[in-house]
Amino acid sequence: MSLFCAISNEVPEHPCVSPVSNQVFERRLIEKYIAENGTDPMNGQPLSEEQLVDIKVSHPIRPKAPSATSIPAILKSLQDEWDAVMLHSFTLRQQLQTTRQELSHALYQHDAACRVIARLTKEVTAAREALATLKPQAGLVAPQAVPASQPAAAGAGGEPMEISEQVGMNPEIIQKLQDKAAILTTERKKRGKTVPEELVRAEDLSKYRQVASHAGLHSASVPGILALDLCPSDTSKVLTGGADKNVVVFDKNEEQIVATLKGHTKKVTSVIYHPSQSVVFSASPDNTIRVWSVTGGNCVQVVRAHEGGVTGLSLHATGDYLLSSSEDQYWAFSDIQTGRVLTKVTDESAGCALTCAQFHPDGLIFGTGTADSQIKIWDLKERTNVANFPGHSGPVTSIAFSENGYYLATGAQDSSVKLWDLRKLKNFKTITLDNNYEVKSLVFDQSGTYLAVGGSDIRVYICKQWSEVLNFTDHTGLVTGVAFGDNAQFLSSAGMDRSLKFYSL
C-alpha cells in the first residue's frame, strides 16, 4: 500500500499524520504550512508540529516521473545505468590488482622469513655442535697446562697466578729468547738503513685504489670484523675475527674462505697468523686465547691466562710464545704448545685495565696500553716496567713497533697518533687527526717505511717525513684493522661494515 501526501499528491519521503484531519502529509511540507498558518490545511482547525505523528514505513519506492516513460528517456536511463556499472567494474578491477600486489608482497615476506628461520636454525645447530665438542675439550686443556709434578696448581678452571708462580720462566726459555733477539739484531744491522728494492715507492703507493671487496666472510646477523692479520710468510692468506664469534681464514688469490673456526663464546677481538706453521691464534672477551689448526679446522689448544676479557695479543719472534693483555690488569706470557702460562704480571701501582699489547721486533721488550692513557714498556726477562710514555688522553687503542726497532706508534681516543723514540724515550712526533677521529689500528710495513692508520678512515704515512700519501674512505663503518702485503704490494683493511677490502695499483 502506498501513501500519498495530501498537499503534493506524491509519495512522501518522511510521512506523518495529522490527528486533526487524519490526513497523511510530507513532514517537510506540513511543517512549512503550519509555520505560516498554524492550522490544518484540510479543515482549517488549529494544528502544531508537536501534534504530528510520524508513520514508520519501509523506504518508499518513488514512481517514475511521467517524463521518464518515453523511449528516449528510458534509453537515457539505461545509458546512465550502464556507465555506472562500468565505473563500478573499473573500481573493482583496481581493488583486485591492489589486493594481488599486497598478497604477492605478503608471500615474499613469508618466504624471506622462512629462509631467515632456516638459516638461524642451522646456526643454532652448528653452535650447539661446537659447544658439545668444546665441553670435553675445556676439561682437557688445564691438565696440559700444569705438569704432573705440580699438583698444587688448579684444575679445569685454572688459577693463572698459581700456575705462573710455579712454572715461571726457566733459564732455558730466557736463553732461547736472548739467542733469538741476538739473531734478529744482527740481521737488522746487516740490512742497515737500505730500503728493499722490491718495496713499492711512495709515488706508486699514492695511486692505490680499491681492487676487491668481500662482505660474506662473517655473519650478517651480527655484523662487524673486529681484527685482521696477514700471514707474514704468505700475505695472500688473510685472517679475520668477527663480532659473530668466528675466526675466518681467507685466501686472497683464490678469493675464497679456507676455514671458518668456531669456538669462542663472545666476539673475537684479536687474531694472529703464525709465520711458519698452519696455525692461527685468537683472543676474545670470553677470557680465552685459542690456538687453531687451519688444515684441521679445529681448536688444538685453549690458553686460560686471564680472569677478564683478553684485549691484546702478540706472537713472539720465536713463534713459540704468546703475549696477552687483559681487562684483569695483567699481562701474560704463555707457551702455545702446552697452553701453559709461564708468567703473569701486573703493575700494582697503576691498578688499571690493559687495552693492547705488542712485542718489540727483537722480542726482549714489549709495550702495553692502558685504559688510563699510559703506554708502558716492559722487560720480558726481568718482568719489570722499564719505561712509561704519558701524553695521550683516553684509553690507548693500538700500539705498533717499527721493524727498525727504534720507533713506537701509539693511538688513543684523543684523535691523535704519537711517535716515540725508544732510544731517547720521548715523543718526537704527534700526528693530529680530525676531531672525533677514532684510531683503531696501527701497523708498520715489514720494512718500517710506511705507517698505516685505521679508524674513521684509512691513512698511510711515509716514515721520517710523516707525510700522508694515501687516504681511503671506502668503508661505510669504522675500520678496525689494516695490514700491508709483502713489500707493500697491496694494502688490506677490515671494518664494522663486515667487509674485507684490498687496495693496490
**How much helix is in the residues?**
10-25%
Question: Which strand order does the major sheet show?
Answer: 4-31-30-29
The largest sheet is: 4 strands, antiparallel
Distance between the terminal alpha carbons, to the nearest Å? Answer: 98 Å
| Shape, principal axes of CA atoms | elongated
Structural class: alpha+beta
Multimerization status = single chain
Provide the residue-averaged pLDDT.
86
Spans of at least 5 consecutive residues whose pLDDT stays below 50 are 136-166
Number of helices: 5
Rg, please?
42 Å
Number of strands: 31
Strand proportion: 25-35%
Describe the structure.
The chain has about 500 residues and is an alpha+beta fold. The chain is about 25% helix and about 35% strand. The protein has helices at about 25-35, 70-145, 160-165, 170-190, 200-205; strands at about 15, 25, 55, 210-215, 225-230, 235-240, 245-250, 255-260, 270-275, 280-285, 290-295, 300-305, 310-315, 320-325, 330-335, 340-345, 355-360, 365-370, 375-380, 385-390, 395-400, 405-410, 415-420, 425-430, 440-445, 450-455, 460, 465-470, 480-485, 490-495, 500-505. The strands form 8 sheets. Strands 4-31-30-29 form a 4-stranded antiparallel beta sheet, with no helix packed on it. Strands 5-6-7-8 form a 4-stranded antiparallel beta sheet, with no helix packed on it. β17 (about 355-360) and β18 form a beta hairpin. Residues about 135-165 have low confidence and may be disordered.
Task: Give the SSE layout.
Layout lengths: L14 E3 L6 E3 H11 L15 E2 L16 H75 L14 H8 L3 H21 L10 H4 L3 E6 L10 E7 L2 E9 L3 E6 L4 E7 L7 E4 L5 E5 L5 E5 L4 E6 L6 E6 L5 E6 L3 E6 L5 E6 L7 E6 L5 E6 L4 E5 L4 E6 L6 E6 L5 E6 L3 E6 L4 E7 L6 E6 L5 E6 L2 E5 L4 E6 L6 E6 L6 E5 L4 E5 L1
Antiparallel strand pairs: 1-2, 1-3, 4-31, 5-6, 6-7, 7-8, 9-10, 10-11, 11-12, 13-14, 14-15, 15-16, 17-18, 18-19, 19-20, 21-22, 22-23, 23-24, 25-26, 26-27, 27-28, 29-30, 30-31
